[in-house]
Amino acid sequence: MSSVIEYLVAFLIVLGGAFALIGSWGLARLPSLMTRLHGPTKATTLGIGACLIASMIYFPTRGEPFSAHELLIALFLFITAPISANMVAKAYIHRRYNRCSAPEDVHTLLPPPPGAGADWATFGSEPEQGAIKGTVMDGGVGKAQDQGPD
Amino acid sequence: MIEIALDIALGCVALAMLLNLWSLLKGPTAPDRILALDTMIINAIALFVLFGVMENTRVFFEAALLMAMVGFVGTVAYTKFLLRGDIVE
């Protein structure tokens, strides 16, 4: 194996391990769940991508044929990581939202909504129940009836 | 060269899994714990891949792919259960 490729593989392996560690450190260290989501979804996924690229370069230099297994794993992880992060954030927001007993609780318990006059998109797909949801959604009711649950 | 890199990376990933375990035990709410478990699965996949490079074998890639799939389905099932109180409606 030429030394350039060896250095490249070693560098990618160390990079992958370091990014995995940084992501988990962020998960353990950051204060709330919405900030904690950043670590695993970005840094750790990038780290495992670096490890997979390293192994994809490493095995053909050993005389073994090139295989697409690493690409398959990387593709699968890169597709599923944002989806699972979205689901976790959704579960968190809905649990906090169900704990609101007065309309002003919405501003203290929930993270600030994405824009002025817009609510979190996930509340638009909920069927209307109770008095608080009517005050929070402000026009999301029509969308809820069109889409139905999920 | 690669052996030293593998030692460093395996140490990093092991430390990362310990941190995940800590945040799994600490995490104040259920979504925190789900996130910690999901990260732990991803770190386990990294461990599999690095171990495969270390042992110079490709057998572990099937295991890694399987863990990626099962981990994703598990995370979605947990969050679905928290959201709806039911997994398959």
Describe the protein in words.
The complex is a heterodimer of chains A (150) and B (89). With 150 residues, chain A is mainly alpha-helical. Chain A has helices at 3-29, 33-36, 38-61, 69-98, 105-109, 130-137, 141-147. Chain A starts with a helix and ends with a helix. The model of chain A is unreliable at 129-150 (pLDDT under 50). In chain B, helix 1 packs antiparallel against helix 2 (30-55). Chain B is 85% helix and 0% strand. Chain B is an all-alpha fold and 89 residues long. The interface between A and B is large, with 55 and 51 residues.
- Measure the end-to-end span of chain A: 53 Å
Could you tell me the strand content of chain B as a percent range? Answer: under 5%
Shape of chain A: elongated
Shape of chain B: flat
Primary descriptors:
heterodimer; A: 150 residues; mainly alpha; B: 89 residues; 85% helix; PhaG_MnhG_YufB (chain A); sodium:proton antiporter activity (chain A); transmembrane (chain A); membrane (chain A); Na+/H+ antiporter subunit G (chain A)
